[in-house]
Predict the 3D structure of the following.
Amino acid sequence: MTASGMVELTTVVVARQAFRVRVDAAGSPQSMVVTVATDDGREWLFDEPGWRALCYGVAGGKFYWWSARHLVAMPVVQEDGLAEVRTAEDILFAYATGRDQWLLACESSVLLFDRGHEIARADLPEVIASVGWEASRLLVRDVTGETTTITVTDHGLVA
C-alpha cells in the first residue's frame, strides 16, 4: 500500500493494449481513488476501499485488478465492457477460471463467481495465509499451517 497522500503509477500491457493505473491513496485507509486509462483514450475512475493495496492479474488475454472488496476486469477491446465482482469480504487472491468466472480467496472463505454472481463458496475455520493453484485445485494454507484442498469446477467448489 502506498503511504497516505502518495500516488502510485503502474503500467500493464496486455497483447497490444496498455493500461495506466493511477492510485491516489490520500484517503487511506478509508478509501483510495483508482484511475485506469488506456492508450486509445478510454478512462475509468473508481472510489475503492483503501485498507488493502491494489493487486493486479493477467489471464486469458485480460487485465484485471482488485481492491479490498471489488474486482474489475478491464476491456481489452473497445467493444467489451467492464466485468465486476463485489464482495462483503476482503479479497486476498483472485483467479480468472473462465470467460466470466472468478475464484476469489477471501480472508476465511473461497468464493466462485459467474457473471458477477456468487455461485459457490467454501468457508474455512481459520484465516487464509496463502494459496496455490494446481490444475483444477486450489491449495489453501491457513495461519495455523493447515492446508485445505478445494477442487474447482464450472459449477461449484468441493472442499
